[in-house]
Amino acid sequence: xxxxxxxxxxxxxxxVDGILMPSASHAIREAKLAAREMVVEAVMRETAIDGxxxxxxxxxxxxxxxxxxxxxxxx
Length: 75
Known about the structure:
This protein is an alpha+beta fold.
């Protein structure tokens, strides 16, 4: 089970449900896809993404990966 918390400069929105994934690499890939979707939504709403990160946590609460939204934008 992996959890995908959304951390902004102001607060953290915890994922209390989680998603069953076969491995950490699958969870990280899912976080990157979600980050891309969040970037698209932010562009459409004309809102900033500065400092927003998806934290992938395992069952023990350990951060497996942190995916900043800015990291999925190709310049």
